[in-house]
Amino acid sequence: MKTVLHKAETRGHANHGWLNTYFSFSFAGYYNPERIHFGTLRVLNDDTIAAGTGFGMHPHDNMEIITIPTEGTLTHNDSMGNGSDIKEGDVQVMSAGSGVFHSESNKDQHQQVKLFQIWVFPNKKNVTPRYDQISLKNIEKENELYQILSPSLKDQGVWIHQDAWFSMGKLKAGSAHTYYLKKEGNGLYVFMIEGSAEIAGQVLNKRDGFGIWETETVPIDVKKDSWILLMDIPMQL
After folding, report:
1. Quick check: helix, strand or coil at residue 31?
2. pLDDT above 90: residue 138
3. Which of 154, 211, 214, 216 has the highest count of CB atoms within 10 angstroms of its CB?
4. Same domain, residue pair 25 and 94
5. What residues contact residue 150 under an 8 Å CB cut-off, 6+ apart?
6. Between the CA of residue 143 and those of 135, 167, 169, 181, 221, what are the distances in Å?
7. pLDDT tens digit string along 88-120?
């Protein structure tokens, strides 16, 4: 087993007033040559968008983009004609493929929006751009990890053009869990949204990230009530 630890306080940071963001990997004005990506995981941004602000229309291509709001409502519009509100408890995915423009805005004049935006390198280039969004309310499980993303349209959660599986769970203090990696050669990037847990022998606290590879299973011992995101992804680009 090999590991890499990214403590919360070592992340990149930028505060633009309207946007307060932390970067687990190099992005925009933050560059760390040791943190370009973890396997096919390219971006993990922890964003807070102030009331009445947001990202105007901007382009993307050949990237799988996943958005997970944790507070407030984010309004999405894109050049494919999609327009939707994404709330806490939703997951949105956009395959940028051959090219797409989109905007993300907080139209509430009083409440901030908090979200994670995650980029994964695709295994197919220049695909037709696509958009999907689901609510997790029908699949979430109490004190268990549950899948929110996979490579298959027929599997639980949203799907992307990559052999990746994301799982999430709000886990109780004192509980023990084991994660089984889905594919040989994949690694696991753990992000502690809230709480504290010992994962593969490493204690993680709020907003810590931990990459694990060359293993088939990952033990999770929960120290405090925790909200955990697991990203099971190919290690080879």
Report:
1. coil
2. no
3. 211
4. yes
5. 156, 157, 159, 164, 165, 166
6. 18, 13, 7, 19, 12
7. 999 999 999 999 999 999 999 999 999 999 999
Select from 135, 156, 173 the last residue of a domain.
135
Which residue in the block uniquely carries the two structure tokens 């751009």? 129
217: tokens are 């299973």
Burial 79-116 (b: 16+ CB within 10 A, else e): eeebeeebeeebbbbbbbbeebebebbbebeeebbbbb
What is the pLDDT at residue 235?
98
Q: What amino acid occupies position 115?
A: L
Strand partners, 49: 19, 113
User: Would you state the pLDDT for residue 204?
Assistant: 98
b or e along 159-181 (b: 16 or more beta carbons within 10 Å of the residue's beta carbon)?
A: bbbbbbbbbbbbbeeeeebebeb
Which domain, by its residues, includes 172?
A: 146-234
CATH of the domain at 205: 2.60.120.10
**At 203, which amino acid appears?**
V
Structure confidence by residue, pLDDT tens digits, 42-64 = 999 999 999 999 999 999 999 99
Residues making up the chain, counted from first to last = 237
